[in-house]
Amino acid sequence: MNESPARLRIWSAEPLPRDVSRSIERLRQADDVRHVVVLPDVHLAGDSCVGAVVATKTLIYPAAVGGDIGCGMAAVALNATAELIDEDRAAAGLLASFYRHIPSNRHPVRQELPPTLDGMKLSHSSLENQLNRDGRVQLGTLGRGNHFLELQADENQRLWVLVHSGSRGMGQAITRQSTHGARQVAGLACLDADTAAGCAYLGNVAWARTYAAENRLAMLRAVESTFREGFSTTIDWSTLIQSDHDHVRRESHFGEELWIHRKGAQSAAAGEAGIIPGSMGTSTFHVSGRGCAESLNSCSHGAGRLLSRTAARQSIGIGAFERQLQGVRFDHRRSGVLREEAPEAYKDIETVLRAQKDLVKIIRRLRPLLSYKGT
Q1: Which of these, 336, 341, 362, 231, lies nearest to 284 by C-alpha position?
Q2: Hey, which residues are catalytic here?
């Protein structure tokens, strides 16, 4: 354990909940933790908080990365305006196409792995087995929970697509395999970055981040095929923004090299492009990082949950959910399942952005038009 707590910096619009404070204090006391940053979308999830950044010198804490390694956002503009999907029939056709070509779970046939993964090896035979069994059919799939694909319009009514997804089952498998039998510090598994186990985990993280990025690109290519076939329009790939928010990597801060763990937090170096969505039915913001040293060059990855999924299901009825989604196309047959993703279940994105105005600059604001979420 640390002799003195790690340096703490907080960006928040309100006092931290008690369970979040306890979790943060445990991280501050953990061995080798030098800095902890809390962002305004912070909330507790499992052994560590989402919306937090942890800096260490030599130790790696997989819980401070999370299981969905490489989870992130990708946004790109279409060569079209929002009026292209104004008609109900056009929107329904798009949703049906997304169900066919971008499944939430798996494709019916194995997918070719992208060239970017050539030469990158997973550290254990069990991970290679999972890749061959699941990873090859999950490439280009959305996932469940808060993962989504959304069509949006910017201030000039240009049509954009945003996808939020990660490394699918591979990230969880890597976390389980890498932490099995690992040393425990403050109730958290940890690995020494200089050992064989630490190097293996870091190599697997690099693999998972690449896989997750390619997963998002595969879905965007499927969206482009749908628009090309149905509307004779294409994606403007020069507008692509990609940012992941569950990772660990080596960075230089305060004059030393540190392992920066981000879980539900994205890098916001000076001029770095990022994406901060609100919730299903609320605005998304494209941002540029301000390079704030005190935040370890980080910002929030979204609005952050206000209610747990269980609490949302218990307190938000189907009628209330559909009223909150007024003006947004989605599959109404699934309202009962989707209500745990209602805007009311999330913090207010405007408040979250105000709380971190010294971390990012807003580049554009987008309103949701059509939301597709898996089951």
Answers
A1: 362
A2: 301
